[in-house]
From TrEMBL:
Gene3D superfamilies, per database record: MetI-like (1.10.3720.10)
One Pfam family it belongs to: BPD_transp_1
Chief location: membrane
GO biological process, one term: phosphate ion transmembrane transport
Topology of this chain in the membrane: Multi-pass membrane protein
GO cellular component, one term: plasma membrane
Keyword Cell membrane assigned: yes
Entry protein name: Phosphate transport system permease protein PstA
Any one GO MF annotation of this record: phosphate transmembrane transporter activity
Family: Belongs to the binding-protein-dependent transport system permease family. CysTW subfamily.
Domain ABC transmembrane type-1: 165-368
Keyword S-adenosyl-L-methionine attached: no
Length: 427
């Protein structure tokens, strides 16, 4: 038996092809232009988020105070609704913007809310005062008569506050005459002179800012009336009001003068100006509007004082135009006296006097704004015309000096003689 051996079949091995790895394209992606974040104005989404958050805060507060929690009280309701409103508003804004934008929107709402609250309080105070004084203000005798012949039971057609208006004007005029020069001079000393006692003076001024008004009245009463033996008068009340106004004016003027750029004073001194001329012609005109604001703040503090006037000026129901002799009354003191009476006519006079006091403060504020309201570099038309004429004269003078008709030998002879080549005057 023959064994037939078959040759094994040749195994052919073909090389396996590995798929090539496809790398991502390294071409740079087209850059999208950056969109700057809008920092001003409100878009439609902002308005919708604001109204939606307000409605949500109000609804949550109604649920908490009416259904879910046993809460009560109008103040708690308003605070809860406002806090929920802020939280929901922050969430809604965060859906479209990043963290800085959310903080910016929320703080804007908080600041606007605070401003609206303060404005509402101001309107309520002024409106309530005017409404309660509406009965006394329409009568002309309220502004032209005094209370010497009128009593608590007399109608509003008899008596007035002309003595209080005149007394307030006299007292505040005395205080302003003393306060404005002393306050501005002290502020200039603290900023421009800076002597060895400047820190001590600044500390005393800051301490006197919080001085109670009754202490100022007692000081003038003890020195002017008890020690010097003078009588109660409008002058003594003006001194007491000055003590209250002076630290306010100094402090505010000090802050304003600090804001004057130092390069202005350096340039003036580099041109050869003395310290006095630098202060008078550069520093004070630059800070004029701020100094007017300082005077307004001091006036608003002094014109509403009652206790110093009561201690130093006394009380008088008749008209007294002499600030050196006799008692004198002011508008705040008249309000204090009228409101103590339980009679409706006297209470109406008190609120009418308060309205007149607010109107007087507004008039003084307007006058101060007109006097010092122009900022640095702003000139009136008269000053602008005068400066233009001075510039024209300077241009003509320089043109004459450059004239070719003026020969060089004549110029040299004039210069050696020390005379002006055109006028012949000594230089």
């Amino acid at each position: 038996m023959t064994a037939i051996q078959e040759a094994p079949e040749a195994v052919t091995t073909e090389p396996t092809t590995v798929p090539a790895t496809v790398l991502p394209s390294r071409e740079p992606a087209p850059e999208t232009p950056e969109q700057p974040r809008r920092v001003g104005g409100n878009t439609r989404s902002d308005v919708l988020a604001l109204w939606g958050a307000g409605a949500s805060g109000l609804s949550v507060a109604l649920l908490l105070f009416g259904r879910i929690a046993p809460l009560s009280g109008a103040l708690g309701f308003v605070v809860t609704a406002y806090l929920v409103f802020l939280v929901i508003y922050a969430v809604l804004v965060g859906l479209e913007h990043d963290g800085p934008a959310v903080r910016d929107r929320v703080m804007t709402v908080v600041l606007w809310s605070a401003a609206a609250l303060l404005f509402t309080a101001l309107v309520l105070v002024i409106g309530f005062t005017v409404w309660r004084g509406r009965e006394a203000l329409p009568h002309p005798n309220f502004f032209t008569q005094d209370m010497q012949n009128a009593g608590p039971l007399d109608p509003l057609t008899l008596g007035g506050i002309d003595h209080a208006i005149l007394g307030t004007l006299i007292m505040i005029a005395i205080a302003l005459v003393i306060t404005v020069p002393l306050g501005v001079a002290c502020a200039v000393y603290l900023n421009q002179i800076r002597g060895r006692f400047s820190r001590f003076v600044r500390t005393i001024v800051e301490a006197m800012t919080a001085l109670p008004s009754i202490v100022a009245g007692l000081m003038i009463y003890a020195t002017w009336i008890l020690i010097l033996g003078q009588q109660k008068s409008g002058l003594a009340a003006g001194f007491a009001i000055t003590v209250m106004m002076l630290p306010i004016v100094i402090r505010a003027a000090d802050v304003v003068l600090r804001l004057v750029p130092g390069n202005l004073t350096e340039a003036a001194e580099a041109l050869g100006a003395s310290r006095w001329r630098t202060v008078w012609h550069v520093v004070l005109p630059t800070a004029r509007s701020g100094l007017a604001t300082a005077v307004i703040l001091g006036t608003a503090r002094g014109i509403g004082e009652t206790s110093p006037v009561l201690l130093t000026a006394g009380y008088n129901t008749g008209l007294n135009a002499d600030p050196l002799h006799g008692p004198m009354v002011s508008l705040p003191l008249a309000v204090f006296t009228f409101v103590k009476s339980p009679e409706p006519a006297m209470i109406a006079r008190a609120f009418g006097t308060a309205v007149v006091l607010m109107a007087l403060v507004l008039v003084l504020f307007t006058i101060a704004r007109v006097i010092g309201g122009r900022g640095p570099g702003q000139q009136t038309k008269r000053k602008a015309r005068r400066a233009a004429r001075a510039s024209q004269r300077d241009a003509q003078r320089f043109a004459k000096l450059r004239s070719p008709a003026l020969s060089l030998p004549f110029r040299e002879a004039s210069a050696s003689a020390g005379t002006d080549p055109r006028t012949g005057e000594n230089l």
